[in-house]
Amino acid sequence: MNVLESFKLNGKIALVTGGAGILGKSIVEALAEAGATVISASRSATSGDSLVKEFREKGYTIHCMTYDQSKHESILGLKRDIKAAFGRLDIFVNNAVARPMKSYDGSISELELSMKVNGTGNIDILREMANLMESQNNGGSIINISSMMGMFGPDLSNYEGTKMGTPPPDYFFHKGGMINLSNYFAKILAGKNIRVNTISPGGIFNNQPERFLENYCKKVPLGRLANGSDIKGLIVLLASDAGNYINGENILLDGGLLA
User: What's the CA gap between 195 and 201, in Å, rounded?
Assistant: First the structure.
């Protein structure tokens, strides 16, 4: 196969959870540009409908589904809807995340909600979507979106001179767990032609305070935070035949910050 042909996703069905977010939107766009039929799933039908309208105007095949990752029955419903509408699932980008805790001192109730979505819900949806891929006998690609914060402790000097506070512990906990969970699923799904990989982005530009940007960007060899589109090429690589021997890997996407 020609190498450029191997990146194409024509005829593939892809699910992206949290598809309306900063990274999610770029992930949806990347998969659609490569030829996939993309399902963007989130709790908000309004944001999903807006995303569908925007991308369909560009000529991409995008669909919207709603689900609640904190509820097992909702995840099962999403699985049933995908099978009924498309018959199969080839690519699953596990991108949704809840961030109820805002600081080290966040409440236990916030932590419990975080655990429900990012812990229990994360394992739940991975098992169900892997099962859907397994049932069709032609394999697939699962891409978990973690973070460099799942690999390293916080660099508190980034927050000097700002009022951003101390980053919350649940995000570090869940993103670290996601990396090892990918390794687990890569082994559990052995022999079923389902690849499981992780992408761990560094800081994403989101109109942070100027002082934070100064503190952070001077440490990055490329001199900036990531933007959403920086993840697009890597997503297509891992989703496509071009990456068909990449399995059980965690790829740090941080512009060289932690080189």
Answer: 19
User: Of 68, 67, 56, 194, which is closest to residue 136 (Cα–Cα)?
Assistant: 194
- What CATH number does the domain containing 43 carry? 3.40.50.720
Domain count, the chain: 1
Q: 114, 174 in Cβ contact below 8 A?
A: yes
Residue type, 209: P
**Residues spanned by the domain of 97:** 5-248
Please compute the mean of the pLDDT values over residues 146-155 and round it to a whole number. Answer: 96
The DSSP H or E segment spanning 254 is none
Give the model's confidence band at 135: pLDDT under 50 very low, under 70 low, under 90 confident, else very high.
confident
- Is 13 a domain residue? yes
Query: Is 258 contained in some domain?
Result: no
Cβ atoms within 10 A of the Cβ of 117, count? 22
Taking the C-alpha atoms of residue 198 and residue 238, their distance in angstroms, rounded to an integer, is 9
Instruction: Report how far residue 17's alpha carbon sits from residue 67's, in angstroms, rounded to the nearest whole number.
Output: 9
In whole angstroms, what is the distance from residue 258 CA to residue 218 CA? 13
- pTM across the whole model: 0.95
- Is 199 contained in some domain? yes
Who has greater pLDDT, 179 or 165?
179
The answer as to whether 104 is a domain residue is: yes
DSSP secondary structure string for all residues of 150-164: GTS---GGGGTTSS-
Through-space distance between the first and last CA atoms of the chain, rounded to whole angstroms: 34
Q: Are 181 and 144 in contact (CB under 8 A)?
A: yes
Kindly give the residue spans of alpha helices, DSSP state H, lying in the chain.
Answer: 22-33, 45-56, 72-86, 108-114, 121-135, 169-188, 210-217, 232-239
